[in-house]
Structures are given as structure tokens and as C-alpha cells.
Design goal:
The longest helix is centred in the last third of the chain and has 29 residues. Helix 3 packs parallel to helix 7 and helix 9 runs antiparallel to helix 10. This protein is an all-alpha fold. The chain has a single domain, classed as Up-down Bundle (Heme Oxygenase, Chain A). The chain is built from eleven helices and no strands. Bound molecules: pyrroloquinoline quinone (PQQ).
Length: 250
């Protein structure tokens, strides 16, 4: 975790400290992402990434619902509920989870198999459920801060769109709709959350809590990629029951 704070930070100093954590720990630095974006993975490895990442997508609206259940401020709930709608969809808006399934469809994975999470790595499930649990157990300002990894997401989404399109003949623009949509949603969400955290984390304990929340969240993302790397790159240790590209279930 982070070094203990010794004095209360100004809002600008708090933002700097948060950005430093992201700079040092965000998963854009992970070797698995370098392989993915650089075109160094094969079809089965990209399938494994999309299949496991579905678990993260599916957990996001659940963690946002958990957060909303802790919020007494009606204005904040009104703002936050948009995130659930963005992922689950509403009316004619299909939502982010559906757009993610368009990606896994394009990679030849059956929807039932993806949604069942049966082929997910154990560590993926542990990591994403730890995120839901973290948000359910911490005070709202700390829970809000855990989404601040999104400050750094637009850059990685842009890199991913370009990298996947350029490097893999099995990827086309249609299956990347998820990331294109996030290019406008993530900055809106991250700016709101950053402003909220800067205004509401005013004590030493609250500021320590939000810094630790961002570190925790970077670890949630990093651990998922460590697990993918160990199972599908090296040493290639696929856990029992997890998706095996050499024996596709569908
Ligand atoms: O592709 C990525 O690297 C990435 C990272 C993150 C993130 O930083 O947590 C999110 C997303 N994508 C994303 O698409 C998304 O909807 C999202 C929601 C959240 C959150 O914590 O509420 N993070 C992320």
C-alpha cells in the first residue's frame, strides 16, 4: 500500500498523488497489454483475454449498484446510476456488456459460455469480486476513488483500438465498438469522480483511504493480467476447467 500521509493535502496535491499512483501502477504498463496491443498474441490468447475481461465488465454494474446502496446523497445517486445504465443498457440503448459480447461473438466464443464465466481463470473471478466487495465495504468517498483508474483508461483504449485493428486480421471496427463508446464515457465518469474525491476527502484518514483505494484498484487490474500471462503466455499453466484454446468448448 502507500506510505502513510503525514499532513492533509490540498485538493491539487491530492490529485497529483492520485496521478502519480496511476502513472506508476496502471495496467497499461503490464507486459500482457504490450503483447496484446503490439500484435504479439495468437487468436486463442486474444480469445482468453476477451473471455476473462467479460467478468470485469459484468462486475462493473454490480459494484456500482453496491456503491449506490451506500450513498445517502440523492444527487450523487442520480449521477451514479448512469453508470449502471451505460453497462446494462436501457430502452433501445444496448449498453456496454452487449457491446462486449459483440467482441466475444466476433472471436468465435459462444455467448452462453462467456456469460456462464465457466472458462474464466480463478484469479480473474477473485480479482473482480474483490472489487465489488471493496466498494460494498468502504465509505462512499473511498469507494468512489476506486474508479479513478478510469482517469487513465482513455489512453489505453485509444492504444488498443489502433493496436488491435492494425495487428490482427480477425479484429474489425465493428467488434471494437465497446472501446469507441468508452472514449467519451470514461472521461465524463473520471472527471466527476475526481472532482467528488477532491471536494470530499478532506481529512488525513479520508485522503489516505482514497490513495489506498486507487492502489488497490490498480492491483485488481494488474492481477487479472498476471493471471492471463501465467496461463496463456508463460509458463502456460492453464488451471483446471479454465478456457483452453487448444480444446475450445464451442
Ligand atoms: O480497458 C481498460 O483498460 C479499462 C480499464 C478500466 C479501469 O481503469 O478500471 C475500466 C474500463 N476499461 C472500462 O471499460 C470500464 O467500463 C470501466 C469502469 C470502471 C470502474 O472502475 O467503474 N473501470 C473501467
Amino acid at each position: 500500500m502507500n506510505k502513510p500521509l503525514t499532513a492533509v493535502l490540498s485538493p491539487a496535491e491530492l490529485e497529483d498523488a492520485l496521478r502519480t499512483i496511476g502513472h506508476e501502477r496502471y495496467h497499461n504498463r503490464h507486459p500482457f497489454h504490450h503483447l496484446l496491443h503490439g500484435g504479439k498474441l495468437n487468436f486463442g490468447q486474444v480469445q482468453a483475454w476477451a473471455l476473462n475481461r467479460y467478468c470485469y465488465q459484468a462486475a462493473i454494474p454490480r459494484k456500482d449498484a453496491a456503491l449506490i446502496s451506500r450513498i445517502h446523497d440523492r444527487e450523487l445517486r442520480r449521477e451514479w446510476v448512469q453508470r449502471i445504465l451505460d453497462h446494462d443498457g436501457y430502452g433501445d440503448e444496448e449498453g456496454g456488456i452487449e457491446r462486449w459480447l459483440v467482441l466475444t461473438d466476433g472471436l468465435g466464443l459462444s455467448r452462453d459460455y462467456v456469460i456462464s464465466r465457466q472458462g474464466a481463470l480463478p484469479a480473474t473471478v477473485f480479482a473482480v469480486e474483490a472489487y465489488v466487495d471493496f466498494v460494498a465495504r468502504h465509505p462512499p468517498v473511498v469507494a468512489v476513488a476506486s474508479c479513478l483508474t478510469e482517469l487513465f483508461a482513455p489512453a489505453i483504449h485509444k492504444e488498443r483500438i489502433v493496436g488491435l485493428l492494425e495487428n490482427y486480421d480477425f479484429i474489425d471496427d465493428k467488434v471494437l465498438a465497446y472501446f469507441r463508446r468508452r472514449l467519451s464515457q470514461a472521461p465524463r465518469d473520471a472527471d466527476f469522480a475526481l472532482d467528488y474525491v477532491k471536494r470530499h476527502a478532506t481529512t488525513l484518514a479520508e485522503q489516505q483511504g482514497v490513495l489506498d483505494a486507487l492502489t488497490f484498484k490498480c492491483n485488481v487490474l494488474w492481477a487479472q493480467l498476471d493471471a492471463l500471462y501465467a496461463a496463456y503466455v508463460a509458463p502456460g499453466m492453464i488451471p483446471p476447467g479454465a478456457f483452453d484454446p487448444s480444446q475450445p468448448p464451442c
